[in-house]
Design brief:
The protein is α/β, with parallel strands linked by helices. It folds into two domains: 1-102 and 263-352, 3-Layer(aba) Sandwich (Isopropylmalate Dehydrogenase); 116-254, Isopropylmalate Dehydrogenase (3-Layer(aba) Sandwich). 40% of the residues lie in helices and 20% in strands. It is built from eleven helices and twelve strands. Strands 2-1-3-12-11-4-5-10-8-9 form a ten-stranded mixed sheet, with helices on both faces. It has a two-stranded antiparallel sheet with strand order 6-7. Helix 5 packs across helix 6 (194-206), helix 7 packs parallel to helix 8 (240-253) and helix 9 (294-306) runs antiparallel to helix 10 (310-325). The two termini are 27 Å apart. 47% of the residues are buried. The structure holds 1,4-dihydronicotinamide adenine dinucleotide and magnesium ion (MG). Magnesium ion (MG) binds at residues 244, 248. Residues 7-346 form the Isopropylmalate dehydrogenase-like domain. Keywords: Lyase, Manganese, Metal-binding, NAD, Oxidoreductase. Its cofactor is Mg(2+); Mn(2+). It catalyses: (R)-malate + NAD(+) = pyruvate + CO2 + NADH.
């Protein structure tokens, strides 16, 4: 039989992305050797440095160059001397949209050796399913009378029946597989057009799934409940903006944003999916070798799972958990290990 092999585009990007992405490729290569598959990495030197040289975050045909790959593994983009909307809309958002990665999947668990900033929290195992290509993140609108007293801004949100239904379906199937309930984040009391529409479409799709109980909760109350009773939640489906905010909140409950992964998924698999930690380029610690690589490792594990390499995906997280259980932790978690020391510990766990 032919050896399984995958082509993965690597966009390390900026700041600590340049430190945690190479760590992740070493770990994936070690797993590939163990589990009998191969990965050919295509390194893409895109991001802010590329912008300073070429005036754009990636080449004009960047999307096309990625399109025949099996997946994209991304670090982070963001530079203190560039506006954040430039970096985001110049690379991340075009990839998510052109490849119709309409699900942004963000699991959160408390890993061994991590103490939640919340008192008494030990049970926390939540997956946020964030709508990833429409909603509040829209380029429709504009600004007028710049700098004047009459200046104004208009920002439109776009919600479509098809867009809401497909993310609700993904969330319902995940809730069914996990055997838990499904919570939908809403704000239909204040946002009177799009959010009642969201509620209706979510309820009708989830209604087709017998085993899934649906709770619709207002986003403000949901934020409070997640802090007070995080153990009550399992799968949460949310619009682009609400999902973005909730997943950072929940990731913080699990100890550090350096841990949390995300997967931008094109469920029909017509295009590559993209895997990235939720943290940014962390310019405050970049270049010092202290970044926590766990968010990048967990993202790589989700990528392996998506590629069908289940054993390697589980092996990666088992190794990370073993290392953390044994007390090796980076500084954001109160430890003293640097990126290299943590990565070496994971590699030797995989290789024994
Ligand atoms: P950030 O996530 O880069 O950093 C927030 C704080 O968490 C910092 O104190 C940082 O040192 C710490 N931190 C983050 N990841 C860590 C890790 N792996 N290990 C240890 N500590 C870690 O968010 P911030 O500071 O708001 O944004 C910095 C830049 O990153 C901005 O330009 C922003 O636009 C960009 N950004 C990019 C994202 C992406 O590429 N998906 C996501 C979020 C922000
Ligand atoms: Mg975010």
């Amino acid at each position: 039989t032919e050896r399984r092999s995958y082509t993965v585009d690597l966009i390390a990007g900026d700041g600590i992305g340049l430190e945690v992405v190479p760590a992740a490729t070493r770990v994936v290569d070690a797993l590939a050797a163990r589990h009998g598959f191969g990965v050919s990495w295509r390194e893409r030197e895109w991001g802010s440095e590329y912008f300073f040289a070429h005036g754009r975050m990636m080449p004009v045909d960047g999307i096309e160059r990625l399109s025949d790959g099996d997946a994209v593994l991304l670090g982070a983009v963001g530079h203190p001397e560039l506006p954040d909307h430039e970096t985001l809309w110049g690379l991340l958002i075009p990839i998510r949209r052109e490849f119709v990665q309409y699900v942004n999947l963000r699991p959160v668990r408390i890993l061994p050796g991590v103490v939640s900033p919340l008192r008494d929290v030990s049970q926390l195992d939540i997956v946020v399913v964030r709508e990833n290509v429409e909603g509040e993140y829209s380029a429709i609108g504009g600004r007028a009378y710049r700098g004047g007293a009459e200046e104004f801004a208009v920002q439109e949100a776009v919600f479509t029946r098809g867009g809401i239904a497909r993310v609700a379906r993904f969330a319902a199937e995940l809730a069914l597989a996990r055997g838990g309930g499904l919570t939908s984040a809403t704000k239909s009391n204040g946002i009177i057009h799009s959010m009642p529409f969201w509620d209706e479409v979510v309820a009708s799709v989830v209604g087709e799934y017998d085993g899934v109980g649906l709770r619709s909760v207002l986003i403000d109350a949901l934020a409070a409940a997640l802090v007070l009773r995080p153990g009550d939640f399992d799968v949460i489906v949310a619009s682009n903006l609400f999902g973005d905010i909730l997943s950072d909140l929940i990731a913080a409950l699990a100890g550090s944003i350096g841990i949390a992964p995300s997967a931008n998924i094109n469920p029909p698999r017509e295009h590559p999916s993209m895997f990235e930690p939720i943290h940014g380029s962390a310019p405050d610690i970049a270049g010092r070798g202290v970044a926590n690589p766990v968010g990048q490792f967990w993202s790589a594990s989700m990528m392996l799972e998506h590629l069908g390499e289940r054993a390697a995906a589980a092996g990666l997280m088992d190794a990370v958990e073993d290392v953390m259980r044994a007390g090796t932790r980076t500084r954001d978690l109160g430890g003293s290990a640097g990126t290299e020391e943590f990565t070496s510990a994971v590699l030797s766990t995989i290789n024994t």
